Amino acid sequence: MSEAKRLAGEKAIEYVDDGMIVGVGTGSTVAFFIDALARIKDRIRGAVSSSEQSTQRLRMHGIEVLDLNATGPLSLYVDGADECDPHKRLIKGGGAALTREKIIAEASEKFVCIIDPAKRVDVLGKFPLPVEVIPMARSLVARQILAKTGGQPVWRDGVVTDNDNLILDVHNLSIVDPVAVEAAINQIPGVVSVGLFARRPADVVIVGGEPPLVL
Ligand code: 5RP
């Protein structure tokens, strides 16, 4: 599967134009994209990173990491996903970086999602849906998610996000209306963000393979 991830990451380089500041996601597929980006680093102005993990890898390659407040809107965001449906709506947050990922996706004109074939699903929800919560609201949010969605929230024990918050993973969902579920979970006080990218889906999905499939 890592070969498929590498092929997807390498293909995404075709979307990088000279002089760009590139939004960069998080995860093992994105790591391949960052390594490929390093080969053309003299052609770009820098990157906006969605996590400490990606920041470290970008800096290791000598790619400048910039603050989104200073760059303004971005032309391109490249990130992975845990699940992707036929409408390019995603579940993300397996790496607990969903909030910053969502911010950069929103700030970007084009969101290119890079996945291996196993991430493609007809209906989202088999992968437990990550929700970032303020620590004091953990139990409140879990009760409300259960009541509103019927899903089973499980605290991702031992994980603290880059924003010092916690993650609930919601199991046993079949998300037939991802836009509605995203909105409903977002409204619970204490939710920082939910790992459903439905209101703002990907624009392009690259499925790694020989050759890569571009959707
Ligand atoms: C991190 C994410 C990742 O994009 C997602 O978990 C996919 O990771 P990988 O490329 O390692 O399979 O959303 O929060």
UniProtKB/TrEMBL annotation:
UniProt-annotated binding residues for substrate: T26, G27, S28, T29, D79, G80, A81, D82, K92, G93, G94, G95, K119
One GO cellular component, as annotated: cytosol
GO BP annotations listed: D-ribose metabolic process; pentose-phosphate shunt, non-oxidative branch
Reaction catalyzed: aldehydo-D-ribose 5-phosphate = D-ribulose 5-phosphate
Keyword Heme: no
Pathway linked to the protein: Carbohydrate degradation; pentose phosphate pathway; D-ribose 5-phosphate from D-ribulose 5-phosphate (non-oxidative stage): step 1/1
Coiled-coil residues: none
Active-site annotation: E101
Molecular-function GO term, any one: ribose-5-phosphate isomerase activity
InterPro entries on file: NagB/RpiA_transferase-like (IPR037171), Ribose5P_isomerase_typA_subgr (IPR020672), Ribose5P_isomerase_type_A (IPR004788)
Keywords: Isomerase
Entry keyword Isomerase: yes
Enzyme Commission number, as recorded: 5.3.1.6
Family named by the database record: Belongs to the ribose 5-phosphate isomerase family.
SUBUNIT field: Homodimer.
HAMAP family reported in the protein's UniProt record: Rib_5P_isom_A
Task performed by this protein: Catalyzes the reversible conversion of ribose-5-phosphate to ribulose 5-phosphate.
Name of the protein described by the UniProt record: Ribose-5-phosphate isomerase A
Organism: Agrilutibacter terrestris
Lineage of source species: Bacteria, Pseudomonadati, Pseudomonadota, Gammaproteobacteria, Lysobacterales
The encoding gene: rpiA
